[in-house]
Design brief:
By secondary structure, this protein is mostly helical. The protein is built from 16 helices and 2 strands.
Length: 376
């Protein structure tokens, strides 16, 4: 580990740097999201390059030098894309997000400490891996970028590394709920089989159940837990009936395929309609693709028209989709901060801001758990 002294930097200058960094970071995050929807947008790519260049320049100008080499190599990588020698893709976005996040954490420590400890070897290794992309054969460039990503975020996993189901406190409560309800146990047993429908679905059911139950608990249990479990199970059962080539398609869905994909909402609701006691669950699956601003489907509902359980399920599914590998570019687990950024960005649009805030609180609690265990 290396030490960086903050004492030679004027406090007002540092405060101004932090303020501008926050603005540049926000702009860069938005540009990444936009570029992933339009990878050939030259003006957006140039704008992202300028944001990273400015962040790097500001850090160097003030004397906050440890992250500068990594940012320089990132700038070189973006220049490679601008010159047409490399394609912009979500993997590049993830590397950029993680590098900027490293800078943010470093600056946060500079704001409260006179001396900051950082992993110089890791910083240099990241810089070398990103630099190696420039010299790697075209067919190996993506693998080298994966290596850089794995160094920045060791918890990033790839499709070959299938996770075992996460047995947690929340999942144990599912066992308790199903032990008291034969119908719910039946739905759970069927839903568990759908996890073998696609490689990247393995462990998904347990993770989503854990997320929805923990979010619900954090909010004071506004939704009956068994209704959430029934909704999650019915959703996965309905998804399991979709054609496998559609579920694993790496390109965008066609105009013919979109309504077929959306039909899982109707099918899940119909399955639950046979169980009058799960009327709330039926509403949850019916509403879970509705958006807070009214832009969702099938009915274009908005705000309080959307049942709370559907808001919970929408967040849990989005989090799962981002972090556990069914992004369209590759079946890989993506950084936690990617999910935090995207959910935060779409608060007030796709998601209810109140539920996004609950999600952020839950995420912070999860991040603190390893630290607490180390201290005890």
């Amino acid at each position: 580990m290396a030490l960086f002294s903050v004492t030679d930097i004027d406090s007002d200058v540092l405060a101004e740097l932090l303020l501008e960094f926050g603005e540049r970071r926000e702009a860069a995050e938005l540009l990444i999201l936009e570029l992933e929807q339009d990878t050939a947008n030259v003006s957006k790519l140039n704008a992202l390059f300028r944001e990273i260049h400015t962040i790097k320049g500001n850090l160097g100008l003030v004397g906050v030098t440890p992250p500068v080499l990594m940012l320089q190599k990132l700038e070189d990588l973006l220049h490679l894309i601008r010159s047409g020698d490399l394609k912009f893709e979500p993997l590049v976005g993830d590397i950029t997000l993680l590098l900027v996040d490293r800078c943010a954490n470093f600056l946060d420590e500079c704001a409260i400490k006179s001396t900051v400890e950082y992993d110089k070897d890791l910083y240099n290794l990241v810089a070398k891996r990103i630099e190696a992309v420039r010299h790697a054969p075209d067919e190996a460039k993506k693998d080298v970028m994966y290596q850089a990503l794995a160094i920045l975020d060791p918890q990033t996993e790839f499709a070959e590394q299938v996770e075992a189901p996460d047995v947690s406190e929340s999942v144990e409560s599912v066992s308790q709920l199903t032990s008291e309800d034969a119908d719910l146990l039946y739905m759970l047993n069927i839903a568990e089989q759908t996890q073998y429908r696609a490689t990247f679905w393995q462990g998904k059911l347990e993770r989503v159940l854990q997320m929805v139950l923990e979010l619900n608990k954090l909010a004071g249990k506004p939704v009956v837990p068994s209704q959430l479990v029934a909704a999650v199970c019915a959703h996965d059962i309905a998804m399991g009936f979709l054609p496998i080539e559609m579920l694993t398609k790496t390109s965008k869905l066609s105009e013919i395929e979109k309504p077929r994909m959306q039909s899982h909402v109707r099918l899940a609701a119909e399955l639950l309609s046979y169980y009058p006691k799960y009327e709330q669950a039926r509403l949850i699956v019916t509403h879970h693709h509705e958006h807070f601003d009214g832009g969702g489907y099938p009915a274009g509902l908005s705000r309080s028209q959307i049942t709370p359980g559907a808001q919970i399920l929408a967040i849990a599914h989005t989090f799962e989709a981002i972090t556990h590998g069914y992004s369209r570019d590759s079946n890989r687990k993506r950084p936690l901060m990617r999910a935090v950024m995207e959910l935060s960005r779409f608060a007030g649009q796709q998601f209810d801001p109140m539920w996004v805030e609950h999600f952020l609180v839950l995420t912070r609690q999860k991040q603190m758990e390893p630290m607490k265990s180390e201290l005890t």
